[in-house]
Amino acid sequence: MHIKRWKAENGYRQAMVLGLPLVISMVSSSVMTFTDRIFLGGYSLDALAASLPASIAAFLFLSFFFGVVEYVGVFVSQYTGATRHERVGAALWQGLWFCVPSGLFLASLWFVAGPLFALAGHPPEVQELEVAYFRILTLGGGPFLVGVCLSCFFSGRGMTKPVMIVNTAATVLNIPLDYCLINGIGPFPELGIVGAGIATLVGFTLPAVCFGIMAFTRRNEERFKIRSAWRLDRDLFGRFMRFGLPGGVQFFIDMFAVTFFVFMVGRIGPTELAATNVAVSIYTLAFMPMIGMHVATSIMVGQAMGRGEPDQAAYATKSALHLALAYMLSMGALFVLFPAPFIELFQARGDTAADFAPVMAMGTILLRYVAGFTLLDAIAITYMGGLKGAGDTRFIMFTMAAASVCCMVIPLSVLKQFGAVGIHSAWICLVVYVAALATSFMIRFRKGPWRTVRLIGK
């Protein structure tokens, strides 16, 4: 059965060919963020403590626009599956028009950074670093969104290798620049967390430039109308908003739940916050590659639905799920069996083993929680990719909203009111949240109402 699935259309091999470059691309992004925090952890514990709340808060605002823009890839995949290649350029341009006001809004968040982080109640020295890092990251929101949108022109058509190459190149540039700007190596000044932000801004901008050069060619104009379809298409833009906006809201709600979790942990104590930062940073090594498989699933499902083959869409999703479960099981085992090598990467310069011991002890425990929901995350992410590829985005949005409120916001708020928020209760809420999403998406996909959704019309 598994050998047959390997060779079949939308089987393991096709999922690997399509998904592996996206996985590597996501690994590159994960490594960029991971090394960011390692370098900051080596610079100072205050910088490490500030990096996660600031980056999560920045991505919280970015997430809505990112969730909308990435849906360009589903439109491109469905037009490709339907062999309506002349509509691909128009679909891409609707996303680019959406990027313009989105980038301006994100840049304007510079002016609310101070009051925002004052609400968090973190120590003043950490707040100052959070504000500086957040401001730079939000300035990079516009270039980041343009890069994501342009990458959909390639990934939506199943050409995932260019996405991998460009994102890997951005990481190769970012890592040494990050180290130099944080620590003041060579001709670069020592900027600490500001340097980390500037390096990330460069890493956001490079893909936008590269994808733009690669996409807007004469050859692509002939087949996809990549240049001439630049005008706003009211009907297509309306459908893009109808299906894309729920994706944006869903992503925002998910990030809000995680941000709320991190800020609540920050109120427990500095050791708990630092250990949570370390555990979440380590988990990105497992989580971000799964985003690559999530995108691959939505592409395969989108192309199958564009051809009018929902059974093939279901087959593709199951193939991707098997691969995701195998990967996440391996990562979960590593987190349980060998936690110390991961956590030690975040030990600051000059810190003795005794200084770092509380973070090491708590981080080891938190990685067990992480390992516990790796398989749940694999199920949630893969089925969500299948539902998004078919256009069932409203269900995802409402499910995310219900789960975040019922599993995260209300329980943590009630526990805080009674002074009972602890590191274990907070992490248990996070595990329950992921379990609720995995169960809901699996049931929805298997029931199959997504099979009748019409995304691109006639």
TrEMBL record:
Keyword Glycoprotein: no
Name the record gives this protein: Multidrug-efflux transporter
Record field: transmembrane: 12-34, 54-76, 88-112, 132-153, 165-185, 191-217, 243-266, 278-299, 320-340, 360-383, 395-415, 421-445
Compartments, as annotated in UniProt: Cell membrane
Sample GO molecular function, one term: xenobiotic transmembrane transporter activity
PANTHER family recorded: FMN_FAD EXPORTER YEEO-RELATED, MULTIDRUG RESISTANCE PROTEIN NORM-RELATED
Annotated InterPro entries: MATE_fam, MATE_MdtK, MdtK-like
Membrane topology listed for this record: Multi-pass membrane protein
Keyword field: Antiport, Cell membrane, Ion transport, Membrane, Transmembrane, Transmembrane helix, Transport
Organism the protein comes from: Pseudodesulfovibrio aespoeensis (strain ATCC 700646 / DSM 10631 / Aspo-2)
A single GO BP: monoatomic ion transport
Entry-linked NCBIfam families: matE
Any one cellular-component term (Gene Ontology): plasma membrane
